[in-house]
Amino acid sequence: MTPTLQVFLIVSAALFSAGLLAVLSRRHAIFILIGIEMMLAAANLNFIAFWRFSPQSQPPTGVMIAIFSIAIAAAEAAVGLALVIAVYRHYRTTNVDHLDQLKG
Amino acid sequence: MSSVAFVLIAILTLAAALAAATLQKLMHATLSFAVALVGVAAFFFLLGAEFVGLVLVFVYIGAVAVLIVFTILLTRRDARKDHGANWGGALLAVAVFGGLAWAVFKTPSVAIGAPHIRALTVKRIGEALMTSYVWPLQCVGLLLTAALIGALVLVMEEKR
Amino acid sequence: MINQSIDGFLHPDVSKSVDQIFVNAKQWLLGLLSWLTGAPGWVIQVASSLINIFALLFVFLTLFALMSVLERKILGRIQNRYGPNRVGPFGLLQPVADGIKMLIKEDIVPARADKLVHFLAPILIAAAAILALGVIPYGRNMTPFTIDGGILFFFAVGSTTELAVFMAGWGSNNKFSMLGAMRAIAQMISYELPLIITVLPVVMVVGWLTPDRIVAAQTGYTLGLVPRWFVFTPWGATAFILFFVSGLVESNRTPFDVPEGESEIVAGHMTEYSGFKYATFFMAEYIGMFAITGLAATLFLGGWHSPLSVLEFIPSYVWFFTKLSALLLVYIWLRGTLPRTRIDQIMNFAWKFILPMSFTCVIAAAVWHYAGRGLRGWLWSFVVIAIVYTALSMLLDTQRKFAPRIYRFAE
User: Fold this and answer.
1) Helix axes C316-337, C234-250, angle to 10 degrees
2) What would the DSSP string read from start to end of C245-287?
3) pLDDT computed for residue C264 by the predictor
4) Is residue B114 a part of any domain in this protein?
5) Once rounded to an integer, what is the mean pLDDT over residues C145-163?
6) pLDDT in tens, B47-80
7) How far apart are the first and last CA of chain C?
8) Is C103 exposed, middle or buried (CB count within 10 Å of its CB: 0-12, 13-18, 19+)?
9) pLDDT at C346 over 90
10) Average pLDDT over residues C299-314
11) Which of C131, C146, C151, C160 should one mutate to test binding to chain B, selecting the residue with the greatest count of B CBs within 10 A?
12) Which of A29-33, C7-11, C31-35, C345-349 has the highest average model confidence (pLDDT)?
């Protein structure tokens, strides 16, 4: 019994939900970033699974999208973490519940 | 494709992802996040895209995980623990998972087995990057430069 | 695989069979296994991988033991003293004594340390170092595991070492360990970029990321005399020196051993480890050194090729380990003669000198390729490298102000 595409998509959906859980229920800003990175990894898994199970195109499109997505995720993680450090320097807290200065 | 390997890797990845989402100590959650990424890289190896798996290990675990760890060290005045998952978040996550799984099961065209494909060599990826995808490559280069400069500017201390 | 014919010196058949003796032995063993048990194909594949792994571990653990005593003896001779010479003839059984000592030491874990992280860190470092050894070609047809992106696998596995070093430093709950770990990671990250960019010219010229193909691209001799190794081209020589220096830094060896500076921060991230865990760190550092020097020999020194065509009867693995030993001797020599550099000097060196020079190597390799790969290409790429080197030397030297030396003598 070799795994079908459905099984891969279910696993990727589960990984995405775990990332969503981390984003929704954590207070520390870095945890939210970890959740976002997990959601991006789940989306990459989806792309590669679809590439594998579909008729092949000449440039391997799914793989290309995954490679670029990994690069962009790294850039976004770097900027996000720089933001967390800058916010910590100013407000002395990383709890996102306390960052409510712009509340109406 | 072997199904024993698939089941083992799936269990490892999902357990590590759930641990990363629910553990209270920051460091343990970060390390289980790294383990979950290793699991995703193993999936890529199983699916035949070894280059992408290696790039994932290299970029995420070698760079992003180390960045996260450094940031945790630099922002340490807060309490080291964090509340774990709460019920509202868990409910929403389960609902999203249920919706996605229902969509997957409802689509008959994804219940297919793995066809035979040509091996994905690094040469093919390189050729594609330099011919069909050369503009996205240059744009990603610019984006990474902009992200680098932006991150540096954000954390540079202001001169007094 | 790439099966090349061997020009033997005296007896072609004898030299060929000696060269392939390990490959033939493994094939014979696998044939015996399948005849004895009649097992299906995948069991034979698993058995083949296991034989590769055990051979690799045996060879490199023996080499590690030998090198630990040889290093101390050579360092001793450089410092005008004998090294260890009590245990066994010329002190060569010293690793046995060291091993027994490490094994029977008490394993002390700090009370408030994070037990899981503290336990896993040395295992992860050792696993990463041993994994990296698996893609290097040790002889003709003697690569343990052929992966299409072999060089990328090597660097991906090497980059997980940083996370493991951090785990070691943080898991010990000790300020010195934390400081040592942060210094170690800063150093390793800074030099990882030059390490990879100096490999880029080689990959560009060969067109493959597989170490086997890179070695195969270095066959032959120009004018029948000089081998076509990449170290004999201007960009290759510069890239080899930069790769060698970056490898020194990645392995945390003197003159770059700030993370484990014995006179400064006790033992850095390894402070709170005793007994067998410390031995594991020690072993991981040495095996990391073997991996980096093995890769340097593969990429720049022609792998298992012999330097002269008359010497080709000597087996390929002997040549590989000779080159490996020569590079390790240079490592030990540098450790014995150079003082430690400061951490900010290391960072400046990486970002201001090594990184621009490694980009120059990429450009010089392209110039070499497009000006024809002969004498004209050689000269033009040499000109490119010389111009950039001179410019960098003049730009970076502006801060030094030397005062005349004043000698004071007792009156």
Assistant:
1) 60
2) HHHHHHTT-TTS-GGG-TTTSTTGGGTT--THHHHHHHHHHHH
3) 61
4) no
5) 89
6) 888 899 999 999 999 889 999 988 888 887 655 5
7) 77
8) exposed
9) no
10) 85
11) C160
12) A29-33
Question: Do B128 and B71 belong to one domain?
Answer: no
Across the interface, do B55 and C152 touch by the CB < 8 Å criterion? yes
What Cα–Cα distance (Å) separates residue B70 from each residue in B26, B59, C38, C186?
Answer: 12, 16, 54, 10
Task: Please determine, for residue C10, whether its predicted confidence score (pLDDT) is greater than 60.
Answer: no
Q: Specify the pLDDT at position C2.
A: 40
- Annotated domain spans of chain A: 5-96
Chain-chain contact of B125 with A45 (C-beta, under 8 angstroms) = no
What's the ipTM?
A: 0.89
* The domain boundary residue, chosen from B45, B60, B78: B78
Q: End-to-end CA distance of chain B, in Å?
A: 61
Contact C239, C141 (CB under 8 A): no
Pairing of strands C221-222, C226-227: antiparallel
CA-nearest of C390, C349, C320 to C19 is: C320
Q: Is C173 on the interface with B (CB under 8 A)?
A: no
Angle at which helices B26-46 and B3-22 cross, to 10°:
160
Final residue belonging to a domain, choices B78, B113, B137: B78
Residues of B in contact with C170 (CB under 8 A): 27, 69, 73
B89 within a domain of the structure (yes/no): no
**What does pLDDT average to over chain C?**
85
Residue C230 CB-density burial (10 A; 0-12 exposed, 13-18 middle, 19+ buried) = buried
Q: B1 lies in a domain?
A: yes
User: Which residue of A8, A27, A67 to mutate against B (max B Cβ within 10 Å)?
Assistant: A67
CB atoms within 10 A of CB C282: 18
Q: Which residues on B lie below 8 Å from A64 (Cβ)?
A: 125, 128-129, 133, 136
CATH class of A5-96: mainly alpha
Length of chain B: 160
pLDDT of residue C18: 81
The pLDDT tens digits of the residues spanning C28-77 come to 888 888 888 777 777 888 888 899 999 999 999 999 999 999 999 999 99
How much of chain C, in percent, has pLDDT values that exceed 70?
93
Q: Which amino acid is at C258?
A: V
- Residues near C120 by beta carbon (within 8 Å), at least 6 away in sequence: C167
Looking at residue C7, its pLDDT comes to: 45
- CA-based nearest distance B80→chain A, Å: 10
CB atoms within 10 A of CB C130: 21
User: Out of B57, B70, B122, whose CB is closest to C160?
Assistant: B57
Task: Tell me the three-class secondary structure of C1-25, residue by residue.
Answer: CCCCCCCCCCCHHHHHHHHCHHHHH
* Interchain CB contact of C160 with B (< 8 Å): yes
Residues, chain A: 104
* C382 token code pair: 């040499």
Q: Is residue B157 part of a domain?
A: yes
Say if B and A touch: at least 3 Cβ pairs within 8 Å: yes
Grouping H, G, I as helix, E, B as strand and the rest as coil, residue C221 is strand
The answer to whether C22 faces chain B, any CB pair under 8 Å, is no
Write down the number of H helices and E strands in chain B.
Answer: 7, 0
pLDDT band at A5 (very low <50, low <70, confident <90, very high): confident
Check contact C-B (3+ Cβ pairs < 8 Å). yes
Range of the domain at B131: 121-160
Domain count, chain B: 2
pLDDT average, residue stretch A67-86: 93
